[in-house]
Design goal:
It is built from seven helices and two strands. It is mainly alpha-helical and 217 residues long.
């Protein structure tokens, strides 16, 4: 049994689905359009909820649980679509239309609910403290768009994946580990900037499908 690793409030996991179709990635942009339409409305709600949560934390030091669960759900749904499409291309299983956790799906996102959040940090973390992380995320993702190709490093790596799938039918394991690590970084920053945790995201690339923030047996 391995020693438990350090606790992290944001944990993303994923397993590479094999075999993967050589050609399905060519049409996934069409297949995910229903998700993109729904997510467009959900992200409007996400930003509205974040504004409400800002004032709730400022006055009560608490993020209302129902609002927190909704925003976690939006991030979780977006990540599943990205994992299926051009954020990872790591599964051909169509993502469910769900805000909740889906244990049967090959990827998952969990953000621990904070009992208390700092009133002082809520004033500065989303725009000032996170600026260095925004610069990193801009390089990694370019623009994190569920269902559409990222323009940053992640998008370039996934393009390599797509070409490899087309000609060889294989997804190189080391490339999968790197793509997962980069997406994990982006999701940690997203949760911090969305006021969902006070723990500053680490400047660390945690590779692979198993998040080091979990207790691994």
């Amino acid at each position: 049994m391995s020693t438990p690793t350090a606790y992290r409030p944001v944990r993303m996991t994923g397993s590479l689905d094999e075999p993967l179709s050589r050609w399905l990635w060519l049409v996934k942009w069409i297949l995910v359009l229903p998700h993109v339409v729904v997510l467009a409305f959900l992200w409007i709600g996400f930003f509205a909820v974040s504004v409400i949560a800002f004032f709730a934390i400022l006055f009560t030091e608490r993020y209302p649980r129902a609002l927190f669960d909704f925003n976690v759900g939006v991030l979780r749904w977006s990540w599943r679509v990205s994992y299926y499409s051009y954020g990872a291309l790591a599964t051909d299983r169509y993502p469910p239309f769900s805000l909740g956790e889906e244990p049967g799906y090959p990827t998952g996102l969990h953000i621990a609910y904070p009992e208390r959040l700092s009133r002082g940090l809520v004033l500065v973390k989303w725009w000032l403290l996170v600026i260095p992380q925004y610069l990193v995320v801009a390089f990694l993702a370019g623009g994190w768009h569920a269902g559409w190709w990222d323009t940053g490093l992640i998008g370039l790596l996934v393009l390599f994946v797509a070409v490899a799938l087309l000609f060889t039918g294989r997804y190189h394991r080391d490339l999968f580990d790197l793509v997962m690590g980069l997406n994990r970084w982006v999701l940690r920053v997203a949760a911090y900037a969305a006021l969902m945790t006070d723990e500053y995201p680490p400047f660390r690339l945690d590779l692979g499908g198993t998040d080091p923030g979990e207790y691994v047996v």
